[in-house]
Hints:
Strand order of the largest sheet of chain A: 1-4-5-8
Radius of gyration of chain A: 22 Å
Number of domains of chain B: 3
Number of helices of chain B: 13
Helix content of chain A: 40-55%
CATH superfamily of the largest domain in chain B: Butyryl-CoA Dehydrogenase, subunit A, domain 3
Order of helices and strands of chain B: HHHHHHEHEEEEEEEHEEHHHHH
Mean pLDDT of chain B: 97
CATH class of the largest domain in chain B: Mainly Alpha
CATH superfamily of the largest domain in chain A: Butyryl-CoA Dehydrogenase, subunit A, domain 3
Oligomer: heterodimer
Distance between the termini of chain B: 53 Å
CATH topology of the largest domain in chain A: Butyryl-CoA Dehydrogenase, subunit A, domain 3
Strand content of chain B: 5-15%
Low-confidence stretches of chain B: none
Shape of chain A: globular
Largest sheet of chain B: 4 strands, mixed
Largest interface: A-B, 95 and 75 residues
CATH class of the largest domain in chain A: Mainly Alpha
Number of strands of chain A: 10
Distance between the termini of chain A: 57 Å
Number of strands of chain B: 10
Strand order of the largest sheet of chain B: 1-4-5-8
Shape of chain B: globular
Number of helices of chain A: 13
Amino acid sequence: MDFNYTEEQEKLRQEVHEFFSSNLPSDYRPRGVGGTGTTMEQFKFWMDLQRKAGAKGYLTPGWSKASGGLGLSDMEQGVVAEETSYWGATWPGSQGIRVCGPPLHVFGTEEQKSTFLPGIAKGEVIWYQAFTEPDAGSDEANVSLRATEEDDHYILNGQKTFITAPGPADYLYTLARTQDVIPKHRGISLFLIDAHSPGISYGALATMGIFTVDIFFDNVKVPKTRLLGELNRGFYHAMVTFEFERSTTGAAAGARRGLEELIEFCREEKRNGQPLLKDPAVRDLLADRAIEMELSWLQGWFAAWHFSQRDKLGSPPPEAGGLHTKAVSADRAKQLINAMGLYGQLHRGSKYCKYEGRAAMGWMSSRSTHPAGTIEVNKIVLAGRGLGLPRIPAKFNKEIRAAVEGVEV
Amino acid sequence: MEFTFTEEQEMLRTSARDFLETECTEKLVREVEDGDQGYSPELWKKIADLGWLGLVYPEQYGGAGMNVVDLAVLYEEFGRAMFAGPHLSTVVLGGMVVLEAGSDAQKADILPKIADGSKIIALALTEPESAWDMKKTWDPEGVTVSATAEGDNYVIDGAKLFVHDAVVADDILVVTRTKTGGDPADGITLFLVDAKSQGVSVTPLITIAGDKQCEVVFNKVKVPKANIVGELNGGWAPMSKAMQVATVMLCAQMLGAGQRLLELSVDYAKTRIQFDMPIGINQYIQEHCVFLLRDVNGARWSTYLAAWKLAQDEPCDFEVSVAKAWGSDAHEHACWCAHQVHAGVGYTVFDGVVPLYSRRGKTLQLYMGDTAYHKEKIATILEGWPGPEKPKGEPLGLWKEIPEVRWIPEWWNEFDKGT
């Protein structure tokens, strides 16, 4: 048992730390780029910093040097993730880095890899993960964006929705149906699509948290060379993402920064003549967040460590830390907004607004736990795959639906 | 960073589980609960022979020279097996104080007797008043029982409450106040009092756990000065150090108990048939099982992080309080989930282990501070945190607030939307 960082890891941390400390302006606010109200100047600033980080290899530290990374070990990647998250740097290109890059590495042709990987690693491009559809949310395998083979290309027709858009898209990492088959996930393929191909159009779909878009495909021509991996195996290929991306060490570091900011606010802000820090409800909230930060740190590093030992240890034991963070996030947001009295409802920018409106922003964004699966789906998956509890057999799905809709099977 | 146990720890875990499954059966646990001693002398003798009473003491005192992480491994198994006995009182709260602060003579006299099972110690800390107020219960503010110098003796006068294992204790480690005013931690003196001294009266309380917590009244009890453990007025430092170890051992017990409850609940959910289906197919039941997993997983590494820091002799007030704050609430919740999955079967008194875990769990949650107590400790630590680190780059003025709500980022206006 050992909970210390190695000397090498500390040295790496210092380097990354120095990068952010010297490149971030002293008046920046750690708000990322995905939130509502991002200005053009802020967006350009983050793109610029992303390129600088890319030049250092900090965007993709686990990738080989040839692919634009640093060839760092799993644990070292965890350190880079910690520092990046501590400073609140969320990259506009994060979907390319975290979601599209890993399967590209594994299943991409040489031509695809040399075309797409450098741009991701250097922080020059923005990818959207175009998976979700109106009828394929939690039920991801229900994808119906149709890709029809025609000569040397595919023709795509259909719609994607709720696609996270941290900036203008360059490419779409897209799941499309290439075969009608049962089970449904065996007829889905992955495509790497130029975001401005003729026939693609976009509509704004603003949410209470992150900005998202609708994407419409009207006879969009995609060359066959842009199919990633095997035809009809796209659903499985996409799963590699989750295998590759076990590095969740950043979460605790981000939580630490958030907690430090909140403590500072509560130290300076006074109510009834004493700092908010002395308020019992605020203390309760701060302690809860500190406990969750600490558990998240442990679980993040346990996951990174376990992944680093995967040859010896195999797949990790079922883990519910992320589920917990989701499960309590709305409670924490509620505690904060409630602790601020009538001021809690003020949006940032408003006269009399306190704490940059973060109580209201946090409360709004906590209204949903859907990214990477709703909490309800997370629980079902954990119960089934993690604990081996029985699931309703798929063959009954039609019967159940018919019973609810009152139709004959 | 390494999330591993040593080979010795794995061996200790395996042998402890095997031994306790055979020797510390549900039947025995119930007998101990119904008896008036709170432990089984036969089992106590056996674990002395296994070296579990001297595990963390140096070999010169009849110990095995192991550390707090090793002890936590054993306590996890204690929790799983619902081991009942004065181990925490004697080995940790009594013995580790002697080891930390006692004189050479005290160590040479007392520790070997603890290790061979011939001495049982109880800790008399909490009091009728301080027990009301969890903010004071485990802090020096709560200690008012006085010890007054009188020739070569001190005279202890006052009542202690919720004293674990006093019914069978040979010695009672009494936390007394020998000075008032100023820092409450300054003026605490520890006395090792022969339980048979004149003026000591012990009355067991009736708890839901069926353990033997007692009222211990000291009616002008004379204690020789030589029985002071550590410095006069300086007893709080060694006491609180032992209490930190005890706190983490309670966490380890709750972890072991919680893991067993998780296994029992998942197993029951898979095998109990209602409506022609295993009840575990229902998502309400699944949710209880998933939250049980969440509760136990969170407890595991927070407990061992605190134990590891203690073993390294690093400051760890924060880690200990995080472990116990999470551990207590998570255990309460884990027990509740297990009750829900087991329904009526989890509600009986004379059959099944869920109610046993649940009743005994409450004591583990309260002892050495509940969640509210430790959250307050955490909040106090957070008050001393530095603010967020400010970067060194030139200010750019890009983060000025705009006096309007913008749901759509500015780049969208310039984006080619293809329509």
